[in-house]
Structure formats: structure tokens, C-alpha cells
Amino acid sequence: MVDGMNEGDTRKPSRSSKQQRLEAFEETSRFARQAADEERRKREAKTERLRQARLLAKNQDAQGS
Questions:
Q1: 5 phi and psi, to 5 degrees?
Q2: For site-directed labelling of 31, which of 14, 38, 59, 62 has its Cα 20 to 30 A away?
Q3: Predicted structure pTM score
Q4: How far apart are CA 22 and CA 24, in angstroms?
Q5: Confidence at residue 62, expressed as pLDDT on a 0 to 100 scale
Q6: Cα separation of 14 and 34, whole Å?
Q7: pLDDT in tens, the chain (65 residues)
Q8: CA 25 – CA 21 distance, rounded (Å)
């Protein structure tokens, strides 16, 4: 028996194993891309918060001097 086919059944499975592997790879790639995008957004938000904090600290130092 191959790919869930019955013995003597010569029909091809509805999706080839090559197609299934391709779909699995594409899905994995999509998840990886989404995770990378989310990490990039978090990093950009953190960078902006740090930039704002440095700017605020610089302004407070300038006013206190």
C-alpha cells in the first residue's frame, strides 16, 4: 500500500507526495515569514521607545544645565 491506496488500486492519490511536501514547505515558509515580520515590528517599536527615552533624557539634561 502506498499513500493510503488500497492494494490493486492503480489510481493516483488526489495529491502527490511531492505536492504535499511543497505545500508543507510553503506553509512553513509562511509561518517563518510571519514570525520574522513580528520580530522586526517588535524590534522597531523597541528602537523607537529607546530613541524617545534618549531624546527626553537629553532635553531634561539641557533644561537642568
A1: -85, 150
A2: 14
A3: 0.60
A4: 5
A5: 87
A6: 29
A7: 455 556 666 766 567 999 999 999 999 999 999 999 999 999 999 999 999 999 999 999 888 76
A8: 6
**37: its cell numbers:** 515580520
Count of CB atoms situated within 10 Å of the CB of 37:
10
Mapped to the 3 state alphabet, what secondary structure does the chain carry?
Answer: CCCCCCCCCCCCCCCCHHHHHHHHHHHHHHHHHHHHHHHHHHHHHHHHHHHHHHHHHHHHHHHHC
Which grid coordinates are listed for 12?
Answer: 493516483
